[in-house]
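Input sequence (416 aa), recorded before submission:
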Amino acid sequence: MSSLPLIDKEVLAKIFFPRHSGQVAILAPTDERPVADAAIAFGKKPELTGFHCHSFGYINNPDGTVRWLYPLGNRSAPFLRLYSGAGLRSDALKTGFKAAFSVGLESWVRSGTLHVFFKNEMPLGGMLGMSRLEQLAIFTGTRGENRKAVFLLKNEKGNHWFCKLPLTEAAQALVANEHEALASIADLNLQKMVVPVAKAFGNGLMVSDVKPGKARSSNDLLPQHFDALAELYSLSLETQTLAGTYCWQEIVQHINELAGQPIHHEFHFERVQRVVANLQGLMDKLDSSQLVSTTLAHGDFTPWNMYLSHEKLHVFDWELSTRLPLLYDAFHFVFQTGVLVKKLPYSAIHSAIISIKNNPSIRAILEHEPTSFELLYQLYLLRNISYYLLKYLRQEALHAQAHWQLAAWDAALELH
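Predicted structure, token format:
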């Protein structure tokens, strides 16, 4: 019998019963029959007369919380379409799950089972009316203020769609921003980059699957990345004073808030103090009246938010998209993969950053712009570090990656 996992009960209730999540009973294997009209039971399926039921397997995160959900009896591991990790470890994980499911050994790799009971309302609202139950998969989201659930759906034509259900007010704003961003990008008629088609769905958003038939990933910037970014830059480039950019206004606000923000007890106190002081020092030395080039940007341009095909880049998850200084996405790709994937010292990350300006497409753009490469990188550091450090300081618990990033930020600011 599966033991009750470390779960966020409110999140599971919101996922399965979004319209009345506060009236859902969460049952451990030994609990009595619920009084409520909706319940979620773990482990062995209880006999509850008068209820309809859907049963799911789930895969946990390393910390024991539920990560993926899928209908029991599935032979195709559909939740893997919700996973876009790159690298040998990710490839091995995906291969292992596919093999286990294909030969009927799904029970060997799942973390447990849960059963969704309901009387008067089909769980997930109208979502199951758009997809056969066996084709459904659910990602429960990443803990934090931006948490949202993501549902994989397959329509009658065999096309995959993803439905994003915001679980917090902050997540709802991000979903709305993605809808607006994708509409703006669609107007550009990009040839080198494929982005999702978006449709509103209640307070959520449905986006088409952009994964190509022969998809691959890379933790390094390749010609497809540079070509796609260069096209996006050329079609959306604007020049304005630094003070007039939304990015600069964000930087000023975040650094001012950091000055009064208590330091998270899991962080190294002196290191956070030094990072905040260096952010303030770097911001103070920049002339906000100077001109800066900005473009539409993805905002989280990383290998886990994209696929590569032979000639194009297929990019999804545009919820952080906004207008940002030129090269922001390229810097972010190198910085994040260097810290989170390759675990490089900052000296190696900085060398990779400098090499960006040697790409012919990027060099051609920079030749005609008033903003120096160094200033663009400084603005990336100011905006990215102040944005994420503020979020980390306000979180209840930190993951290991937060500590890796803090060390890299410290080293980067010491040099700039």
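Checked by second reader. The first helix runs from residue 9 to 16.
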